[in-house]
Amino acid sequence: MAVNLQPPRAGDLRPVRGLTIGVAEAGIRKAARKDLTVMLLEPGASVGGVFTRNRFCAAPVQVCREHLASPDIRALVINTGNANAGTGDEGLVRARATCIALARHLEVAPEQVLPFSTGVIMEPLPLDRIEAGLPAAIGDARPDHWLRAAEGIMTTDTVPKAFSTSVRIGGEEVAITGISKGAGMIRPNMATMLGFLATDACVAQPLMQQLAFELAEASFNRATVDGDTSTNDSFVVIATNRARHAPITSLDSEEGRALKAALLDVARRLAQAIVRDGEGATKFITVRVEGGRSGAECRQVAYAIAHSPLVKTAFFASDPNLGRILAAVGYAGIDDLDQGTIDLWLDDVHVAVRGGRNPAYREEDGQRVMKQQEITVRVGLGRGAAADTVWTCDFSHEYVSINADYRS
Amino acid sequence: MAVNLQPPRAGDLRPVRGLTIGVAEAGIRKAARKDLTVMLLEPGASVGGVFTRNRFCAAPVQVCREHLASPDIRALVINTGNANAGTGDEGLVRARATCIALARHLEVAPEQVLPFSTGVIMEPLPLDRIEAGLPAAIGDARPDHWLRAAEGIMTTDTVPKAFSTSVRIGGEEVAITGISKGAGMIRPNMATMLGFLATDACVAQPLMQQLAFELAEASFNRATVDGDTSTNDSFVVIATNRARHAPITSLDSEEGRALKAALLDVARRLAQAIVRDGEGATKFITVRVEGGRSGAECRQVAYAIAHSPLVKTAFFASDPNLGRILAAVGYAGIDDLDQGTIDLWLDDVHVAVRGGRNPAYREEDGQRVMKQQEITVRVGLGRGAAADTVWTCDFSHEYVSINADYRS
After folding, report:
1. Which of A256, A281, B38, B289 could bond to A251 as cystine, CB 3.0-4.6 Å?
2. Which residues of A are annotated as a binding site for substrate?
3. Could you tell me if the ipTM is greater than 0.90?
4. What distance in Å separates the CA atoms of residue A60 and residue A76, rounded to the nearest whole number?
5. What φ, ψ does residue A386 adopt, rounded to 5°?
């Protein structure tokens, strides 16, 4: 079902020096499924993370926020099958216990472990199974296990998501590799369901939060499947500092910009992969809004379009029912919007001019674009110079099937 | 498909003195379909109306807003099959031309006619067919044609929507009858797709806008099917002033309160009928949020739940996947929400206590409620005394089918 998204090949994913990955089958919800992943860091890594803004955030998100204040993160532990969200104080106890268990094996402090969970909400986390599975996960740890990790964090994903690149920093080639998961309950607000991005470049720890924030803003925070912001969104950026170049101490330095651009390239591909693998997706849709007074205003309109069930079902049907897009622009909440300045394009086809149908528009041109697997909707608001872009997918029968059957 | 909604019987719908209705088949989009309705008012009626807040509002909505400033509305003309929205200046010309044509037949001024359109967006209104159909519609006009009118304004509705009641005002029994239509693109913001409510009670014209606003706020503005606010929402309240009691000059008077309560009863049933007949609906869901700091905050949370595709598909599946409701509460946008004070009920089943699963909650209890056709979701925010309620329906395969096939 995924739209133009191939599974990664293990050989294409660069190992990141100073980081190993192990995966185990812990039977958390179902047997014979990779559902427990550890990422082990050598001492001295820099780590930043951003998390869901959902006020009903999961227990592991709360623990991550606390532990990220620690100086030397040494491990991440990720389980699928259970989100440990809506689980109250007992959920917090179990998230902390997961960290304690892994820390004991690694002989580090529990605060040096970051926990992540994804899966069903409001069910107790099966701590015993996680504890029992940790030795196998640790024993499995190797630098070239990125593909296994991408598989180990999947839930309703149909394709594992991992991308890799490299960039020269201070004369040295450094690796960048990342993984993500997520297909439904996707409208990241700070980060995606789960995303992990690592480089062996050297980055000063104080930069990491800013780096994670800026990367998330320009990648995961522009993706939406169904408008449902998850309780568990987490995005973590790791610099293992194993390269020999001088540490980057400013994102505005030449090296800082080069590294950030390379990281963003991978982060964007990871975020778009989530949309391409969106539950039931048959099309990948880029919604670009231009001519707004601010980026926020452009995003507001773009999300109204991207979340409209009527627009999404029209894309599924390849039906150029473009009035539905105009209606979404109109209800996006911009109180002083003048419909008389609005233009609409589907790829290169100019559909609406100043709020009305373009006299030159022919239905067969709209139809041609709507039949594509990749479509750009472009809206001109005609009231300013700001622009922004959001990625989404269509809304199919399969989305209903997946979400009506998910737990059964 | 409609949830506990029977078609009205013509004999149950009270005529409203001073008002006649005629319906014709004008072939606006499809042949052999009632698609043109006129409501003719004797002189001296009081009329108020509220309209969509969608900035991309349809041409007839703009014309209605202008004409409502006229002192003596004499007719309403309603077509289906074409929304006359996203049609630019030419759309305005055609909406005005419709009024001119009907006004000529009735020998009144065009400003005394209110036009309404519903159907496909961004297609030119076939003015010639409307003009050609008007004589038949006018010739059909009778006081007891309310059911015909309810049928004449249907689009994707599966059941005509009409309700009637009576109330004693100043010692005299007055009639109240209303009709509405709408099944998709339903998230009224001021009013529903189309709603018309008439009484032969006597109400001073200056009260009518306030009355229309207050009725819409407590009825149509609490209904949502898919979160898509239409370009054409219109709700009109008519008092034909044919009763003999002294005119109502205050909504706070004893008579004013009695009339408003009776009008609201019919308006609520009309609004709920739209949700019951929501596209693909198999369940009618009442979302009540209590314990908020303001009504607006409660509505914000209620709409987040009512619009979540994940919540709506879980209802379709009768799956008590209640974490999805908590997630929606969490992303509703209340920045200082504390998950530790949140409670959740499904009808009488207490599901979540202070943000976590109720230890006494049993899955089979949730399952029992989820299988019902009528379900109340009740959320306690635990931070204030305000409450509000929203009505919605589930999200089924049928919704996707209807909206993927609507134009073809």
Report:
1. A256
2. 155, 181, 192, 279, 403, 408
3. no
4. 11
5. -85, 160
- Half-sphere exposure at residue A150, Cβ-oriented, CA atoms within 13 angstroms: 24
Class of domain B10-276: alpha beta
To the nearest 10°, the Cα dihedral for A64, A68, A74, A80? 20
Of A231, A327, A406, nearest to B56 by CB-CB distance is A327
Which tens digits make up the pLDDT trace of B358-407? 999 999 999 999 999 999 999 999 999 999 999 999 999 888 888 887 55
Comma-separated ranges of CATH 3.10.20.340 domains in chain B: 284-405
Residue written as tokens 């133009």?
Answer: A4
β-pairing, A75-79 vs A284-292, is: unpaired
> Which residue, among B203, B152, B157, has the nearest Cα to B176 in the 3D structure?
B203
DSSP B378-404: EEE-SS-SEEEEEEEE---HHHHHHHH
Element (H, E) at B175: strand B172-181
Superfamily of domain A284-405: ArgJ beta chain, C-terminal domain (3.10.20.340)
Instruction: Tell me the average pLDDT of chain A.
Output: 90
Q: How confident is the model at residue A157 (pLDDT cuts 50, 70, 90)?
A: confident
Per residue in A331-388, pLDDT tens? 898 989 998 999 999 999 999 999 888 999 999 999 999 999 999 999 999 999 999 9
Partners of A150 in the β-ladder = none
Among chain A residues, CA nearest to B323:
A121
- Is A400 in Cβ contact with B397 (below 8 Å)? yes
Cβ pair B175, B164 in contact under 8 A: yes
Structural contact between residues A97 and A79, judged by C-beta atoms closer than 8 angstroms: no
Question: If 0-12 CB within 10 Å is exposed, 13-18 middle and 19+ buried, where does residue B349 land?
Answer: buried
Block residue for tokens 């009920």: B345
Lowest mean pLDDT among A42-51, A178-187, A214-223, B49-58: A178-187
Most confident of A173-182, B88-97, B267-276, B332-341: B88-97
Q: Does B192 qualify as catalytic in the annotation?
A: yes
Alpha-carbon torsion (A184, A185, A187, A188), positive or negative: negative
CA dist B351 and B370 (Å) reads 12
Smallest CA-to-CA distance from A124 within B361, B334, B227 is with B361
Annotation: binding site of B for substrate: 155, 181, 192, 279, 403, 408
CB B165 within 8 A of CB B266: yes
